[in-house]
Amino acid sequence: MRQINRAAVLGAGVMGATIAAHLANAGIDVLLLDIVPRELTDAEQQAGLTLASPQVRNRIAADGLKAVIQMKPAAFQHQQFARQIEVGNFEDDAAKMQDCDWIVEVVIENMAIKKRLLAETVVPNLSAGAILSTNTSGLSVNEMAKDLSPEVRNNFLVTHFFNPPRYMRLLEVVGCSETDPALLTDMADFLSRRLGKGVVYAKDTPNFIANRIGVYAMYNGMQHMVDMGMTVEEVDTVAGPATARPKSAVFKTADLVGIDTLAHVGNNSYELLTADEEREVFKVPDYVTKMVAAGRLGNKSKQGFYLKENTAEGRKISYLDYTDDTYKPITKPKFASVEAVKMIDDPAQRLKMVVAGNDQAAEFAWRTLRDSLIYTVKRIPEIADDIVNVDNAMKWGFNWELGPFEMLDAIGVKAFVKRAEKDGVAVPEALKNVHCFYRFEAGKKQFYDLIVGEYREIEPVEGEINLQILKKAGNVVEKTGNCSLLDLGDGVFGLEFHSKMNAITGDILAMTHNAIKRAEQEGVGLVIGNQGGNFSVGANLMLMAVALAEGAFEDIDMAVRAFQKATMAVKYAKVPVVAAPFNMTLGGGCEFSLHADAITAYAETYMGLVEIGVGLLPAGGGTKEMCLRAVNLAKQYDTDVTPFIFKNFQNIGMAKVSMSAAEMRDLGYLREGDSITMNFDRLLADAKQKVLALATNYRPGKPDEAIPAPGRSVAASIKSQLWNLSQGGFATEYEAVMGGVIADVITGGDVPAGTLITEQYLLDLEREGFLKLCGNKKTAERIQHMLKKGKPLRN
User: Fold this and answer.
1) pTM score over 0.85
2) Phi, psi of 434, rounded to the nearest 5 degrees
C-alpha cells in the first residue's frame, strides 16, 4: 500500500484549485503550481513590483487559491484546511515536486500542452516511484504516455475528477497500456478511502464512461424534444426525478456544467467517434452553437437555457425557446404521468410508471430512455468491462438515481425488448438473452456479465457494509413500516430509519427501545444509521400540523415525552451506541446523534437544531444537551458558563447548520473521540468499529442529578440582546418571543445561577416550552408555510 501524504496539483484554474482544496479536505499537503504571468497588473505596477517579484510570479496560483477560498458552495470542508496548500509556479518551484508522492496535472484540455508540461517540467522533477496522473476528461492516456519513459509509464494514469470535486463522488481511473495493475488497485483504494471517491475503472476511449453516456443522453433528448415539439421546460419536467434522474434534468444540468463545455464534449465526441453507430447524435445543434457564440454559457454567464432575473415583482425565471431564440416565462407544465409519481419514493417504481403512461411526457421518457439504454448496452466492453462500473459512473457522475442497467431492470428487460422491437428499433442480441441484470442468490448480489453471458458475484469491499445485501441475507431482526433492526455482525446491531425523508415517527421511537434492549441482552452495542438520501430531517411536520389544527395538545405532549424517553434511552444504554449521521441531519435527527456515546459522521453532514424555523424549540433533548455541554465546558476550563451558553443558544436561535462534518466541531456537535469518515460506503462499518472499540471497557452513564444551572441572569442577558435585535429590525417580534422561551430552557429556568438541577428537570422545561410555542398561532403559520413552500417564514 503506497502512502500519499503530499501532492502537487499542476494548474490553478477552477478544476485544479478545487482538486487541491479537496486533497486538503482529506488532510493531504498540497503544492499548487501554475505558469508565471507575462505582464504586471495595474495594482502590481502601483505597488512597485516587477516581473521578478515572488508575489507576481506566484500570482496565478495564488489567485486560484483565493478564488477557491471564496467559492460557493464551499470547496473546503473547513476554512482552516486552506492552510495546507502552498502556492508557487512552474519555473521556480518545479523542484519541490521531488518531495511529492503524487503529481496530478490539471492544465488546459490540449494534448500538445499537456505533453510539453509533462516532458519539460514534471518528468525532470519526478522522484523515483512517484505517481503521476492527468485529470483529462477524455484525451487518450496512451497517446499522452507515448513520450514518457517506461519507468514513468508504469506509474502513470488518468484520475478524472468530476466538478465540483468536493461534492461529486465519481472519479474515473484509466491506466495506460503499461500502468502497473497494482498501482491502479492501490490508487483506487486511496481515492475511495481517503478522498471519499466512488471509483470506476474506465478504458482509454473518448470521454470515458460517464460523459460518453451522459452527453449522449442529453443530445438524444434534444433531438426528441425538437421532433416532438416540446419545450426546454417540458423536457426538464419529465427528465428529472420522475425518471430517476436529478432535479437539474437535461437543460439545468447543461447550464450547470456550461453550454460551452457541453458543446466541446459533443464536438470532441463527433470528431473522435468515427466508428460509433450513433455518431450523428453528438453533432451539436445549431441553437446550441448560437448560444455559445452569443456568450449564453449557462450559470457562469447568468443565462443559458434558463434566464434568471431580479425584477421589481421579484425573481423571474424564463426558458429559452430554441425555435425563435427568445426567452419565455416558465409555465410549470404538468403531465399526468409525472404528477402520478410525485409521492413515490422508490425511483424504480417511478420510472416504470412514467414510461408506461400515455401522455407526451411518458412518450418522451420512453423514446429517450429506449435510445440511451440500447446505446449503453452496446458500449460493453468498449468503454468498460462490466455493467457495475457503468451504473456507478452514471449515479456518481450525473447523479442518476438508477444506473442504465438498473433502469432496464426497473422497466423489465423482456418488456423493454418487446416494446423497442415494436417501435422498429434494433435491439442488441445480448439484451434478448437477459432476464435481469442484477439479482440476489444465497444472500449475495450478482450482476450479469454481458461479455461471458453469465452472472457473477459483486465482490464485497472490505471495510464496507451494504444494508441491502444484509437484508437479502436474512439479517433483519425486527421491522416496521419506517425502521428496521439489523444484525451487523460481531454482536453489533444496526437501527435503520427508512421513513419518508427518514423523519422520526412513533414506530421509530418504539423500535429505539427494542433495539437497545436487544443489543444489551444479545450483543455488545448499537449503530444508529441508514443508507437513504439523508440521515433524518427530524420529526414528521405534517403530523404536527394536523395535531395543532385539531388542538390535540395532549397528543403532542405524549409525543414529546416519547421522543425524550427514546433519546435518553440512547444516552444511558448499558452498551455503547454510535450514531452515523450523513447529509441532512436536522432537528430530531441531530438530537438522536447528540445523545449517542459517539458520532462517526460522513464528511458531508449538514447538522443543526433548526426547529425555530417552524416556530418550535428542540424538545427531544436537544436544548437540554446544549445546556449540559455548555456547563461541562465551563467546568472543564473552570470558567464562567455564560459564553458557552450564548454560543449554544445562537446555534438553536439562529438555526445554524454545519456545512460539513468538520464544521460540526465548531458548533459543538462533535466532541473529542468523535470521528469523520470521507467515504459514505464505509460510514456504517466505521461506526461499527467504534462500537466494538468502546465495548471493550464500556462504562454506562447515569442521568446527571446535580447540574449547576446557568440561571435567570444569563437568560436575562440573552433576552436583552433579543430585544435590541427586535428593535433594530434584525429579528421579528415573534422571533424575540421564541428566543426568550429557548433562553429560559437552556439556562435552567427561573432559578439563581448555580442552583442544582437534573436532566429530567431540563427535559420538562423543554417540553413545557415546546407546548407553549405550539399554542401560538404564529407557530402554526410557520409550520404551514414550511409545508407549502419548503422554506421558513419569518413572522
Assistant:
1) yes
2) -105, 135
β-pair partners for 710: none
CA distance to 131, 355, 437, 599, 630, per residue, from 410 (Å): 41, 11, 10, 36, 51
Q: Of 615, 622, 613, 627, which Cα lies nearest the Cα of 714? A: 627
Question: Within 10 Å of residue 653's Cβ, how many Cβ atoms?
Answer: 25
- Give tens-digit pLDDT for 399-434: 999 999 999 999 999 999 999 999 999 999 999 989
User: Cell for 405?
Assistant: 442497467
Q: What are the DSSP E strand ranges found in 684-747?
A: 707-708
Angle value at C-alpha 588, between 771 and 245, nearest 5 degrees: 130
Average pLDDT on 344-348 reads: 95
**Percent of the chain topping pLDDT 90:** 97
Radius of gyration from C-alpha coordinates of the chain: 28
Q: In whole angstroms, what is the distance from residue 82 CA to residue 24 CA?
A: 7
Q: Which is nearest to 680 in space by CA: 463, 475, 501, 389?
A: 463
pLDDT above 80 for 1: no
Count Cα atoms within 13 angstroms, Cβ side, for 183: 24
Q: Which residue in the block uniquely carries the three cell numbers 438508477?
A: 402
Confirm if 219 and 257 have CB atoms less than 8 A apart.
no
Grid coordinates belonging to 146:
507515448
CA distances to 74, 567, 628, 760, 764 from 561, rounded to whole Å, are: 39, 10, 19, 11, 9
Cα–Cα distance between 89 and 474 in angstroms, integer? 57
Of 289, 258, 298, residue with least CA distance to 14: 258
Residues 6+ apart with CB under 8 A from 459: none
Interval 353-401: pLDDT, tens? 999 999 999 999 999 999 999 999 999 999 999 999 999 999 999 999 9
Q: How far apart are CA 388 and CA 411, in angstroms?
A: 18
